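Let's practice the habit of predicting before peeking. Look at the sequence and jot down your guess about where helices and strands might fall. Then scroll down.
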Amino acid sequence: MTQPTDSRGEHLRAALSLASSGVPVLPLRAGKVPFGNCPACAKNSCGGRPNMKISGPCTCPRPCHGWAAASTDPGGAGLTVVDLDNADAIARARANLPATRTVPTTRGEHWIYRGAMQSANGVRPGVDIKSLMAYACWLGPGTGAMAALPDAVRALAVKPSTVHGVPQGLSVPLGDHRGTCPHRTPTYLARGIAMAEQRITRARQAVHATVYHTFLAVLSTHGRCGCLTDAHIAHLFAAAQAKGETARHCADAWTNALTRLRLSHA
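Done guessing? Here is the structure:
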C-alpha cells in the first residue's frame, strides 16, 4: 500500500516501527487520552474507568482501555519514562540520575530507562514516572544510549507516607551552637543532604556500612549547629529504605553515628 506523506503517515510509520521492535503502541486522541478499541466502549458504557487510563470491570471480550489497549503485549514495554516538565526538574535529573536516552518534549524532557517499576506522579516538583500500568507519548527516538533502570529512579517513588517516621529521640541532635547556622546558607545543607542521598542510592554493595558512614558524615558536618530537621533525616531514611534497609536499621545506624560523635540523642 502507498504510505501517506502527512504527519499521520509519520505517526503510523513510527507506530509500526515500535510495534515491530516489541514496544506496545496505542493511539491517543486530543488531550492525550486513549481511544476505546470497540463500539461497546462509547461513553464508557462497558464499565471501564472514566479516565480510561486503567482497565476496569470491562464487559468487552478483551482489555480495551489505556495501557491495556496497546497493540502488542499488554503487560507493557519494560521501560520507565521519567517525565521532566521544566528546566528545574531537568537540572535536578542531570545532577542526580544516570544519563540515558533523552527525548525533548513541549515542556521539558523524557528520560527513558530499560526496566519497569511502579508508576507515580508528582514524585518531585515537575517529575512524573511513567512505567507499569501507565503510558507516555512517543515524541521521537531521542538521543543517547538507553541505560538500565537505576535505583536512583526507584527511590524517587518512595514518598514520605511510605517511609517509617523518624523515631522520637532521633529527630535533631542537640549541640552547643543552636541558632544561626555557621554554614551561613540553607543551600549548603540542602546540597549536603542531596549528596548523602545520592551516595546511599548509588551503593552497589555494603549497603549497611554505606548508610552508617553516610549518616556519620552528615552528622559530623551538621550535627552540632542545630540546622538538621526531621524532614532532612526523613529524606536520608527514605533513601536507605529504598535500598532495602529497615526502619530499625536506619534508627540504629543513626544512633551509632550520634554516639560515635558524642552527640546527645536522648
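How did you do? The beta strands are 28-29, 33-34, 79-84, 101-104, 109-114, 120-124, 127-130, 147-148.
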